[in-house]
Amino acid sequence: MFTPRPVGFVRSPYRETADVPKGLGAEHRAEGVIEILPEFELGLTDVEGFSHLLVLWVFDRAHGFELLGTPPSDNRPHGVFATRSPKRPNPIGLSVVELLARDRTRLHVRGIDMLDGTPVLDIKPYLSSIPGETLRRGWLAEAEGRKKT
Ligand SMILES: C[S@@+](CC[C@H](N)C(=O)[O-])C[C@H]1O[C@@H](n2cnc3c(N)ncnc32)[C@H](O)[C@@H]1O
Question: In the Cβ-directed half-sphere of 105, how many Cα atoms lie within 13 Å?
Answer without folding.
Answer: 13
